Fold:
Amino acid sequence: MPGKKITISDLQEKKNKGEKITMMTAYDYPTAGLVDQVGMDTTLVGDSLGMVMLGYNSTVPVTMEEMLHHCRAVTRGTKNSFVLGDMPFMSYQVSVEKAVENAGRFMKEAGCDSVKLEGGSEVCHVVRAIVDAGVPVCAHIGLTPQTATKLSGFRVQGKDAESARELVQSAKDLEEAGVFMIVMECIPDLVAAKITKELNIPTIGIGAGKECDGQVLVYHDVVGLFERFTPKFVKRYVNLAPQIRDALTQYKEEVEEGTFPGPEHIFAMNEEEAKKL
Ligand code: KIV
Structure:
């Protein structure tokens, strides 16, 4: 694979030059390979895997072991893209020591380049400790799915001036605490634009408008493999689920009617050997 491994400096340089940063989620080896091959700057092993890969109703049940399992597959399939591992719910809230230990596991045991964790000013002490331990941290503010219940559901955040100001303050505090990048989910585009302008570090938006320094979407939404619901901010570039169903139906029918395997799929035996059977 040509090209070089993307670094935090490369991402920062993109912001400085006004070039957009690309991010896509991936949860397995083949998808990571595809994401890497098209030259995506960053690959997020999001805890969204709980919903799109494991069938949970939310990201809350996802465990460290599940995250590490998927992160290992993704880093095996990635050559150049910068890989972020998402810290699951309760892996960084219980104590700072536990948070540092768990963050370290993403790098040591799964080969990730950094971690991502949800929260604003209230998680800055945790961010500082993880960064001091040598693990780069990306923050995630706005709609934070792990605490959606506390936020009274999956709702746009920062819609009034007071909550918007809180988001701006959180972003500034997180930058000061040492995060190298911030994901902003489901916030008004004006708020995201203000944060992006006021921070030195890059911002990545998902449902946060076009003024962010980059964009992220969930792979299964982009390729039409998650059919339970589609958020407003998603653009589906291809609808694979019906195509896969058609292929599977055709295979099933051909097996049932005996037209698969055809002669081209069969290993013939040497005639002399066949006579000895
Ligand atoms: O888990 C995830 O995929 C995420 C993105 C939606 C940003 O956090």
Q: What stands out?
A: The first strand starts at residue 21 and ends at 25. The radius of gyration is 22 Å.
